[in-house]
Design brief:
Blueprint (H helix, E strand, L loop, with lengths): L5 E8 L9 H17 L4 E6 L8 H17 L4 E6 L4 H11 L3 E4 L5 E4 L2 E4 L2 H8 L7 E6 L5 E2 L5 H10 L4 E4 L4 H14 L5 E3 L8 H4 L5 E4 L14 H12 L2
Parallel strand pairs: 1-2, 1-11, 2-3, 3-4, 4-7, 7-9, 9-10, 10-11
Antiparallel strand pairs: 5-6, 5-8
Length: 249
C-alpha cells in the first residue's frame, strides 16, 4: 500500500462538565492543534469528546457541532471525523451532519463490552436508524473489540468482522493488546474481507509505522505525537518525523 495508507490524527477535547466552557478559547486551541497536523501532511483528523456517560448531552452536541463547523471552514480539504466517549453514535452522526464532517468512529458497534463504566452495548441499530435522517453521507468506522474493554461472548475476529460489515460499517478498526497482535488481527480480517477498509487503531509509533503500513489501509495515531509530558498539545517535530517515516515507505 505504501503511500496510499491513510493517517488519521486525533485531538482530544477536555470533558464537558458543569463548569462554563469558554468556546472561543477552545476553538482557538483546537484549530492550532489540527493545524500542526495538517502542516505536515495529515489529511484526516478526528475530534474526540471525552465526556463520560451513556448518552451525549445537549451541551456536547452543540459545542462539537460548532467546533466541527469551524474546523471544516478553516480546513475545507480535511477529512473530519467525530468520536464521543459516550456510547451514543446517533449523536455523533447528527454532529457530523450539522458540521459537515465526513465520518464517525463507534467503539462498540455489535455485541457488548465490559468497560470501566460497566456493560456497554453495541449500537448498530441506532446507527442504522440515524443514517436515514442524514442530509449527506456520513461514513461509520467501527472498532472490533475495542481494547479498553473486554467483550462479552467474544466471537472469532472473522465472525465479528462479518457481523460488523453486515450491519453497515464502512471501515473496520482493529487494535490488539500489543502491536504484533494488531497486525495479526488485521491480516486475518483482510484475508476474509479483502474489500473492507481495515485501520489499525492504536500502538503505532514512528519506530513501527513502516512495518504496519503493508498490513492496513489506514491507521489512527495520537498519543505518540503528543509533546512529552503533556496530554493536550501535539508536537510539530513528532508529527513531522512520523510523516517523514510514512512518506519514506
Amino acid at each position: 500500500m505504501g503511500k496510499s495508507c491513510r493517517i488519521t490524527g486525533v485531538v482530544h477535547l477536555p470533558p464537558f462538565g458543569a463548569d462554563r466552557i469558554h468556546v472561543e478559547g477552545l476553538e482557538c486551541w483546537l484549530l492550532e492543534q489540527i493545524g500542526r497536523h495538517v502542516e505536515y501532511g495529515i489529511t484526516s483528523m478526528m475530534i474526540q469528546d471525552q465526556t463520560p456517560g451513556e448518552r451525549a448531552g445537549l451541551k456536547n452536541v452543540a459545542i462539537l457541532s460548532a467546533l466541527g463547523r469551524t474546523v471544516k471552514r478553516m480546513f475545507p480539504d480535511l477529512s473530519l471525523g467525530i468520536i464521543l466517549e459516550a456510547n451514543n453514535p446517533s449523536a455523533a452522526m447528527y454532529i457530523a451532519n450539522a458540521c459537515g464532517a465526513d465520518f464517525i468512529r463507534q467503539k462498540v458497534f455489535i455485541g457488548a463490552m465490559i468497560k470501566a463504566g460497566g456493560v456497554i452495548n453495541g449500537r448498530a441499530g441506532e446507527v442504522w436508524e440515524a443514517r436515514k435522517d442524514m442530509d449527506g453521507p456520513v461514513s461509520v468506522l467501527t472498532d472490533i473489540y475495542d481494547r479498553t474493554g473486554v467483550p462479552l461472548g467474544p466471537l472469532p475476529i472473522e465472525t465479528a468482522a462479518g457481523q460488523v460489515l453486515k450491519y453497515g460499517s464502512d471501515g473496520l478498526i482493529l487494535t490488539g493488546r500489543n502491536f504484533g497482535e494488531s497486525l495479526e488481527l488485521a491480516d486475518r480480517v483482510r484475508k476474509h474481507f479483502p474489500q473492507a477498509p481495515v485501520y489499525l487503531g492504536g500502538g503505532i509509533t514512528e519506530k513501527n509505522v513502516g512495518e504496519a503500513i503493508p498490513h492496513c489501509d489506514g491507521m489512527i495515531v495520537s498519543s505518540c505525537l503528543l509533546e512529552d509530558g503533556k496530554d493536550n498539545e501535539w508536537s510539530r517535530q513528532k508529527i513531522k518525523s512520523f510523516m517523514d517515516c510514512v512518506h519514506g515507505q
